[in-house]
C-alpha cells in the first residue's frame, strides 16, 4: 500500500496542481461555484462523464456481440434466408418454427441434449460434493491435491474430445480392449445411442468434476467451524454432520453449480462434434448423438439455412432460460431445508 | 461477497484467529489411507488421458491394433510431431491462438477493471440499474447468436480475419463483475480522494491508484480469460478460414478425414496441450485460489 501512496506523491511533482481541492471523487452535482478556471470546468466534466466512458466499452461490445445478434436471431428466424444471399430473404412469419416443431431431427437433437446433460450434471454434482468433502480434511500438501484435481481443466475441449474419441474407439479403443480383457462384450460407443451419450457425458464429467469440487470446497470452508464443533460435542458422527450440516449449508453453491452447468450443458457442441469427425454436424451416422447446437450449426452454416438455424437457436435460448429457472427452484428444494444465505 | 477481503490488503488482522480454529477442527478429521487412496485414484484418472495422448503419439498407429496395447511410451514422438507440422500449419495456428488470446486477455483485464472501477468507486446516475444489467447478461447464452453475428461480420468484411474472433470478446460481463467485487474492498476511498485532491483526473486516478492495487484479481481474471479464449472452438471454426485458423480449429482439421491416424492426431493434441500444461504447473496455485474465491462470491 505504501508504494502506491509514494507513487502518487511522486506524481505530484511532475504535474502542476490544478485548483480543485473541494471536489471529492464521488460527487455528481454538488452545485459548486461554476465560475472558476477552465481547469475547474474540465474537472467537472471529468467527474460527470468519465464514469460513462469507463463503462461504455462493455455496453458497446455486449450490444455488438451479445444483444444485437440475439435480437437479430429472432428477426432472421422469421425469414426463409440463405447464407450469403441476404437480399433474397423472404418473410415467412412463424413458418420456420412450425416446421421445427414437426421436425423429427430437432426432437431427436433435443432429446440427445437432455440425455447427455443429465448424464453429465447429476453424477458430476454428486461426485464433486464427495470429492470436496475428501479435500476438506487435513490433507498433507493441500495445494498439490487441489491442483491435481483441477488438472483436466487445462485440457482444451478439442484435445479432450479427440483423446476420448480414441479411448472410446469401437474397434481398437482402450476401453473396449479392457472390457474384452475382463470378458465383457465390446460396447458400440459410437453406434449405440445411449452408449454414445455415456461416452460424451464422460468427457464433460472428466473435465468439470474437479473444477466444481473446488467450488464446493470453497463453500464448505465458509461453513463456520463452531457449527461443526457444537454438533461434535453433541455426539454427531462424520456422516451425520455431513448430511445435517454440510449438505444443507451448501445449498446456494449447489444451485450455482447446477445452473451454470445447465447453461453450459444445454449448449454442448464441441464434444459431440469431434466424437464424429466424419459427418460434419450430423452427430453420428443416425444423429444418435446430435445435439441442438450441433443441429443449429449444421442447418445454419453447413446447409446455409439461416432462418431455420436461427429458429433452432431461439427455441434453445428460451428452453435454457426456462430450465435455468426450474433448476433453481428444484435444487433449492432438494438441497435441504437449512437456511440459505 | 465475503471472500474478497481474505486477499485484500486491509484484512490482514482477521487471519490468525481463524487459522487457529481451523487447525483444531482439522485434527478431528485427520484423513486416513482411505481418503488418500481415493484422491490418488481420482488424480490418476485425471492425468491418464494426457498420458495416453502422449503414449499413442509416441508409437506407430498400427501398434494399437494388437490385443495388448503398449503401456510405455515409444520412440516415435518426434517423427509423428514432424508429420503434424507437415500436415497442418501448426506454428501459424499456434501463433494465431497466442495473438487472439493475448489480445483478448489484455483487453478484458484492462476494460473490465476500468468498468469495475467506475461501478465500485464512482458515483453516477443509473449506476445501480446498469450494474444489475451487467450481472443479468452473465446468464445470457450469447453463443446462440452466432448465425447473425456471422452475417454481421461478413457484411463488415471481417470474416477470416483474427479481428472477427477478437472483437466480440474484448470485454466480458464476468470480468466487469469480478473486478467490481474486488475493487469495492481492495481500493480504499481515501487513496482515491487523495489522488483527486492532488489533481489527478479520473483516468489517471484509475491508472495510478486503482490498477496497482488490483493486481492479484487482475492476474486471475487474466488467467481465466486466456484459458477460455484459448479453448474457444465454435466461433473460430465458423468465423476463420480453414487456412488461417486457431490451434483448436487446426486440431479439428487434423482429425477430420475418413481414416484417422491417431498417432498423428494425438501428437497434435499433445503439442497443443504442453504449453497450457506448463502454464498450469507454474500458475496452478493461483488458478485454484481464483476458482475458490470466485465461488464464495457467486
Short description:
The complex is a heterodimer of chains A (341) and B (298). With 341 residues, chain A is mainly α.
Protein architecture, described:
The complex is a heterodimer of chains A (341) and B (298). Chain A has 341 residues and is mostly helical. Chain A folds into two domains: 55 residues, no CATH class; 236 residues, MetI-like (MetI-like fold), CATH 1.10.3720.10. Helix content of chain A is 67%, strand content 1%. Chain A has a two-stranded antiparallel ribbon with strand order 1-2. In chain A, helix 4 runs parallel beside helix 8. The radius of gyration of chain A is 28 Å and the shape is globular. Chain B has 298 residues and is mostly helical. Chain B has a single domain, classed as MetI-like fold (Orthogonal Bundle). Chain B is 71% helix and 0% strand. The chains are: A mainly alpha (341), B mainly alpha (298).
**Under the CATH scheme, which architecture of chain B would be assigned?**
Orthogonal Bundle
Q: How would you write the strand order of the largest sheet of chain A?
A: 1-2
* Total helical segments of chain B: 14
The CATH homologous superfamily of the largest domain in chain A corresponds to: MetI-like
Straight-line distance between termini of chain A: 33 Å
Largest interface: A-B, 122 and 126 residues
The oligomeric state of the chains shown is: heterodimer
The helix content of chain B is: over 70%
Strand content of chain B: under 5%
What's the mean pLDDT score of chain B? 82
Q: Largest sheet of chain A, described in full?
A: 2 strands, antiparallel
Quickly give the structural class of chain A.
Answer: mainly alpha
The total beta strand count of chain A reads: 2
**Fourth-level CATH superfamily of chain B:** MetI-like
- Mean pLDDT of chain A equals 81
Number of helices of chain A: 14
CATH topology of chain B: MetI-like fold
Helix content, binned percent of chain A: 55-70%
**End-to-end separation of chain B:** 7 Å
Domain count of chain A: 2
Number of domains of chain B: 1
